[in-house]
Amino acid sequence: MRQSDGRFPEARFYMIAGDLIDHGTERDNWDQFFHEGSTVFDRTPVVPALGNHDSHGGHPTLYLQQFALPANGAETLDPGRTYHVTYQDLLVVVMDSNYDLVEPELQVDWLDRVLGESDARWKVVIYHHPFYASRPGRDNYPLRDAWGPIFDRHNVDIAFQGHDHAYMRTVPMRGHEPAAEGEHGTVYLVAVSGTKMYEQGLPDFAAFGAVNTRTYQIIQVDPVAGTLTYRAIDTDGGVIDSFDLSKD
Asked: SS3 helix, strand, coil % of the chain, rounded to 5?
């Protein structure tokens, strides 16, 4: 995080796809998180999504107490578990993917409404448990079945995911298949910034993958040119993956 701040001090906000800490019910974990990140968090907003470790199998009480999050989320859940923000022509929708605690269907109507009402050029969603994991057997079908059709309906551009401790990017996907040529698809990403790593078994529709690689991602949006540039950067400062999107 400090490397990214040093190299890109103009970053407007940080997105974190869940598991900010290890034990969400222990205040010491949160104190350490904010202490270690203080040089960045003192100046730059954080857009967090709720991971399984952040609630540790129960109500995310401490998580919700740490952040002043927009109160524009799904009416069926506590404020802050879901929300959305718009910066320039980028819409960021934050979901709660802990489906062992809350049914994914509880967020469907809200997700459909927020994506449908937005006139932002770029629409991205961030949540913790991946639709498409970087290892077989770890896909989260309840989420994919409930939210995937809505992503397709409203042409979500990127889904930022966590939970799997290996890097993966899919080709643009639509209807759980690689999008046809000329058809809009959603790029699904999984990344890890910490030191815990998983083995990887890439699906056929993966565009790129990496193991034992810590990264941060930079998303640069140019409203005039209508472009979005994505780069994944490792701890040595090298770009390991990138892609560009453009829209009129």
From this structure: 25, 30, 50
- Note the pTM of the prediction, 2 decimals: 0.94
Read off φ and ψ for residue 35, nearest 5 degrees. Answer: -65, -50
Distance between CA atoms of residues 194 and 196, nearest Å: 6
Helices 141-153 and 108-117, interaxial angle, to 10°?
20
Q: Which residue in 180, 178, 179 sits closest to 206, CA to CA?
A: 178
What residues contact 189, with CB distance under 8 A and at least 6 apart? Answer: 158, 159, 160, 161, 168, 169, 170, 217
Query: How sure is the predictor about 161, in pLDDT bands with cuts at 50, 70 and 90?
Result: very high
Give the containing element (helix H, strand E) for 47.
strand 46-48
Q: How far apart, in whole angstroms, are the C-alpha atoms of residue 209 and residue 241? A: 9
> 3-state SS of 107-125?
HHHHHHHHHHHCCCCEEEE
pLDDT digits (tens, 9 = 90+) for 42-62: 889 999 999 999 988 789 999
- Give the tens place of pLDDT for each residue, 223-238: 999 999 999 999 999 9
